[in-house]
Amino acid sequence: MTEKVLSALRELRAGSFLNMLELVLLVFAGIFAVPGCQKYDQLIEKDQVCQQKWSDLDADLQRRSELVPNLVATVKASANYEQSTLTKITEARASATSIKLSGDDFSDPAKMKAFEDAQAKLSAGAIGRLLVSNENYPKLQANGQFTDLMKQLEGTENRILRARQQYNESVKDYNSELGKIRGAAVNKATGQPFKPRVYFAAAPESTAAPKVSF
Questions:
Q1: Is 150 inside a domain boundary?
Q2: Inter-residue contact 122 to 93 (CB < 8 Å)
Q3: CB neighbour list of residue 199: distance below 8 Å, 6 or more residues apart
Q4: Helix (H, G, I), strand (E, B) or coil at 168
Q5: 122: which of 12, 62, 96, 178 fits an S-S bond (Cβ 3.0–4.6 Å)?
Q6: Residue 88 domain flag
Q7: What's the CATH code of the domain at 86?
Q8: Quick one: pLDDT at residue 56?
Q9: Does the CA dihedral 27-32-37-38 come out positive or negative?
Q10: pLDDT digits (tens, 9 = 90+) for 175-197
Q11: DSSP per residue over 25-37, as a string?
Q12: Does the residue 143 lie in any domain?
């Protein structure tokens, strides 16, 4: 009878030890899990900031795209302007609006480069040539509607430049957080849902807003 009691006491002690060990493990798991959840939330938030900044940039690009048809129509109505220049502007606009980025595209350097090149052709290429050569057409310079459109385009180019800078700042913040030890560990533990974003690095000539000269 005594042996049975001793055996029961030993089992009780062993069970208590296991329960205590489980409790300690749970406590430690909780200690490490809370910072991990916080880091995951931080990555989510910074990724959302990147998306918001890109949406701001996309809105400015859309605004410019909507101004271009008005510009072409105004030039056609105001002067016997070089048809080849207007054709190039129209083609460049079509190329710039045909490329849309989403999802994993922001982690693909090739797709980002194609987007940047298309935007550069419209910004510093086609529109830039129009602004430089408009002095040859006094009638065009005197058109108030044309002047207003050029000022709007110039303002839009400045907003686009600033939006690019803000997007790149958010990408730097996000990529830095993702590259840290805890960020990388959380990303790996959660199945790597976060991917580094590619910076917007437009062609050097496209970063300067076209100059309006009359």
A1: yes
A2: yes
A3: 168, 171, 172
A4: helix
A5: 96
A6: yes
A7: 1.20.1440.20
A8: 93
A9: positive
A10: 999 898 888 888 888 888 889 99
A11: HHHHHHHHHHHHH
A12: yes
Range of the domain at 176: 35-206
In percent, how much of the chain has pLDDT > 90?
23
Q: Comparing C-alpha atoms, which of 9, 203, 10, 31 is closest to residue 124?
A: 203
Q: What pTM was estimated for this model as a whole? A: 0.74
* CB within 8 Å of 202: residues ≥ 6 apart: 116, 119, 120, 123, 164
Q: Which residues contact 186 (CB under 8 A, 6 or more apart)?
A: 36, 39, 40, 43
97-155 pLDDT, tens digit per residue, is 999 998 899 999 999 999 988 888 888 778 877 776 666 676 776 677 888 888 888 88
Domain count, the chain: 1
In the structure encoding, which two tokens stand for residue 53, read together?
Answer: 């900044």
Amino acid letter at 76? K
C-alpha to C-alpha distance for 116 and 212, rounded to whole angstroms: 23
86, 56, 30: which is closest to 156 by C-alpha? Answer: 56
- Residue 4 located in a structural domain: no
Confidence category of residue 5, pLDDT binned at 50, 70, 90: very low
